[in-house]
Amino acid sequence: MGSGTVDFLLGAAVIALPQYQIPVLLGTASISILRSIRRRRCKHRKSLPDPSNAAVTDGVSTRQHVDLRFTDVRCSITNKTGVTKTILQNIGGEAKPGRLLAIMGPSGGGKTSLLNALAGQVPSTKGMELQGNITVNGAPQTDSNHRQAYVQQEDLFYSQLTVRETLNMAAALRLPKHMLAEEKEAAVADLIQRLGLVQSADTPVGDAKKRGLSGGEKKRLSIGSELLGSPMLLFLDEPTTGLDSFQAEKVMQTLKDLANEGKTVVCSIHQPRSSIFSMFDDLLLLSEGQIVYSGPAKGVISHFESLGYPIPANYNPAEFIADLISIDSSAATAEEASRERVEKLKAAFKQKAASAPSGGAKDSVVSAPVASAKSSDDASPCSWPQQAKLLFKRSWRQISRDKATNVARAMSNVSSAIIFGGIFWRMGRSQTSIQDRMGLMQVGAINAAMSSLIKTLNVFPKERVLVQRERAKGSYATAPYFAAKLAAESPIGAIFPLLFAAIVYPSAGLHPKLSRFARFCGILTLESFTATSLGLAVGSFAPSTDAALAIGPGIMVLFIVFGGYYVNAGNVPRALRWIPSVSLIKHAFEGLCDNEFPGLDFEPVSADGAGDILKGEQVLNRLGFKDSSVAKTARAQARVLAFNYWLTYCILKAKKPAFQRMDPVPGRTI
Ligand SMILES: Nc1ncnc2c1ncn2[C@@H]1O[C@H](COP(=O)(O)OP(=O)(O)OP(=O)(O)O)[C@@H](O)[C@H]1O
């Protein structure tokens, strides 16, 4: 391998491994030593502490019951044309310890909005106004006076990790520093037992390619991940959506058990079956953002009966309620009648609530409850090196165990190499082989880039959502996550361009020097990393996988057009010269040509060789690569790679989930 190759490989490695990898490596070594000392200490203990007490978290008594009261919760959004839509209107109620409160109502009724408002998880949106007063045990709700968790509707996990590994990872990242590793493991084992996941503890979560946990098990795993923070107040957004009735019942039974342990459980739910309905302790019915009923679940039937709407015999109460409080838009007359009925029910409840004696002493709300999820890069109990070590392990497991993806990528690269190797088989040194050589350099560069780009665009937008969720909980910071991801994924990512190069190079009969082959491999590998980095940058801002898959290849087409093959470097209009300078295809193509052509002699067509290209250097001149070299193109490629990594990091850091602040309604009491 020539010194130029070593130069650029080293350059690429330095850029690819961000500077914090050095503290990561040092930190990893010191953690291992501390761990082994702790383990030895632990062995001398007679028994482990009770895992149920293990989740004692800093500052807040985790056993303190949570009584959540809320009044005047209002939410509205004003669009660009100035039209205001009311989402929630003066909602009040209470979620009590040891009880399961269900927020029910028709679709669009405001269930998720209310749940988000109570949990401080209303996504920050331009034009949105959120008001209300919320207290926890009589004091204005703050992040520090209670522990709460929010289980989102969509379950997101690393698909290759098992249940136990997923929970162990969450425990390692989120449980307090003072807990020993054995205590965290015991807490996880206890959780697995309580959630009924013992049978599937060592089953990978799975995804569309590889079946793993059932929907219900995934939901229970989501609940388990949240329980590790030892919350006494638990919010769940539609926990039964997408589950069959058996799985839905098991999930709800888990929630009921949690409530029975003294936790305050609040969930939104659409239309449960009667066995699930019977598990609710309290019910808050919403229709078009207003309360239709709030109180004990057992009292709802008699409430509607007293208003002239008795439930028919053998009817599911949830279905009866849903029909009663929904607006029927199928016909104008039906809509008018149902709207009138719902308005009557709202007014009746308002009247009843106004005349009801208030329960217990009133707590003055003197300051604003600020609704916000904990979202800090410094909130994790682990140091950055510890986080990086844990996240490296997780990323490595995810990528190394994903056989379906790895085999597909390998097959795709091998088959492309065989096809291109066949098309460009033993090119020889004729005049026509010059064009073939350039063609092969171009398709080789496109193949390596596209394969890495598409793979990244398919995976990263989903992973980003999961990472944003975890960051919102304060599980880890962006820098250790990103460094660990790059370090774990790069070795496997390098295999595929190398496979391609190893087959195509000898088949096509490229420059017969080993050092040139090594550089060929290096150029394609570096280009593949740069394409991955482009995929990360696009995936970090694209709103969805589909959007990323539309944007990424679009950019790549531009890079291909200015890739040095179709438009000569010297003919690019001045205003567009920046495009070739950021085109990873151009840098790879130029590098591959710089590697291949120098020193090659081509056969003339006629004896005098007039007008023919006889030297490889002439080809480079014609392409506009006269002053170019492999090292120069590698440095240019490394700069694009570093820029993309930096851009991805900045976007990930800036895209921290932001939640709407809840403004207090002054002078109100709860
Ligand atoms: N950010 C927003 N911008 C505009 N409208 C919004 C926004 N958030 C909520 N809404 C509207 O507020 C109403 C209540 O929405 P929400 O999601 O809370 O209802 P839901 O009862 O949870 O519905 P579903 O059961 O279908 O999930 C809907 O009409 C919805 O379109």
UniProtKB/TrEMBL annotation:
<feature type="domain" description="ABC transporter">
    <location>
        <begin position="68"/>
        <end position="313"/>
    </location>
</feature>
<keyword id="KW-0812">Transmembrane</keyword>
<feature type="transmembrane region" description="Helical">
    <location>
        <begin position="407"/>
        <end position="428"/>
    </location>
</feature>
<feature type="transmembrane region" description="Helical">
    <location>
        <begin position="20"/>
        <end position="37"/>
    </location>
</feature>
<dbReference type="Pfam" id="PF00005">
    <property type="entry name" value="ABC_tran"/>
</dbReference>
<keyword id="KW-1133">Transmembrane helix</keyword>
<keyword id="KW-0547">Nucleotide-binding</keyword>
<dbReference type="InterPro" id="IPR043926">
    <property type="entry name" value="ABCG_dom"/>
</dbReference>
<feature type="transmembrane region" description="Helical">
    <location>
        <begin position="490"/>
        <end position="508"/>
    </location>
</feature>
<dbReference type="GO" id="GO:0016887">
    <property type="term" value="F:ATP hydrolysis activity"/>
</dbReference>
<dbReference type="InterPro" id="IPR003439">
    <property type="entry name" value="ABC_transporter-like_ATP-bd"/>
</dbReference>
<dbReference type="GO" id="GO:0140359">
    <property type="term" value="F:ABC-type transporter activity"/>
</dbReference>
<dbReference type="GO" id="GO:0016020">
    <property type="term" value="C:membrane"/>
</dbReference>
<dbReference type="InterPro" id="IPR003593">
    <property type="entry name" value="AAA+_ATPase"/>
</dbReference>
<dbReference type="InterPro" id="IPR027417">
    <property type="entry name" value="P-loop_NTPase"/>
</dbReference>
<dbReference type="InterPro" id="IPR050352">
    <property type="entry name" value="ABCG_transporters"/>
</dbReference>
<dbReference type="Pfam" id="PF19055">
    <property type="entry name" value="ABC2_membrane_7"/>
</dbReference>
<protein>
    <recommendedName>
        <fullName>ABC transporter domain-containing protein</fullName>
    </recommendedName>
</protein>
<keyword id="KW-0813">Transport</keyword>
<keyword id="KW-0472">Membrane</keyword>
<dbReference type="InterPro" id="IPR013525">
    <property type="entry name" value="ABC2_TM"/>
</dbReference>
<keyword id="KW-0067">ATP-binding</keyword>
<dbReference type="Pfam" id="PF01061">
    <property type="entry name" value="ABC2_membrane"/>
</dbReference>
<feature type="transmembrane region" description="Helical">
    <location>
        <begin position="547"/>
        <end position="567"/>
    </location>
</feature>
<dbReference type="GO" id="GO:0005524">
    <property type="term" value="F:ATP binding"/>
</dbReference>
<dbReference type="InterPro" id="IPR017871">
    <property type="entry name" value="ABC_transporter-like_CS"/>
</dbReference>
